[in-house]
Amino acid sequence: MMESAFLVFFSIASGLLVAAGTFAFIAAIGIVPRMAKRTQTEQYIRFYEDIIVLGGVIGTTAMFVDYRLPPSTILAGSVALFVGIFVGILAMALAEVLNVMPVLMRRGRLTKGLPWLLLAFALGKVVGSLFYFFMDGFYVL
Questions:
Q1: Does pTM surpass 0.85?
Q2: Euclidean distance between CA atoms 36 and 51, whole angstroms
Q3: Residue 105 covered by a domain
Q4: Contact between residue 68 and residue 52 where contact means Cβ atoms under 8 Å apart
Q5: 17 found inside a domain
Q6: Per-residue pLDDT tens for 100-123?
Q7: How many domains does the chain contain in total?
Q8: Cβ–Cβ under 8 Å, residues 19 and 56
Q9: How far apart are CA 30 and CA 89, in angstroms?
Q10: Residue (of 18, 20, 28, 35) closest to 92 by Cα position
């Protein structure tokens, strides 16, 4: 009984620490204000932050609660699209904060074509994701 109580406590504490670290990381690299500024929707920053937290809570509880949604291709596609957008924005914000693109351009001696390079990154990610999805998790090593 004591061992189970310890495992429950340790699991909850670990989950809280990971969630706090994730949200602190998102706040530290400034995704929300930067995206709001670029889209000229600064008045909705509080809404964006609330939605991110709500998504984190729902995503976390989905691991423990068996949510039953009606089977729908549109619903599944929408969820996959939103998750992909979030991961893509997170990755690009991190790359921007770390100044990956200027370093890549300077070291690769690229003077033109940054939009094409970014498009190639995005299309590569999409093709890789579709390959993984349609090949049912098949890994090419």
A1: no
A2: 13
A3: no
A4: no
A5: yes
A6: 667 767 777 777 777 787 788 788
A7: 1
A8: yes
A9: 11
A10: 35
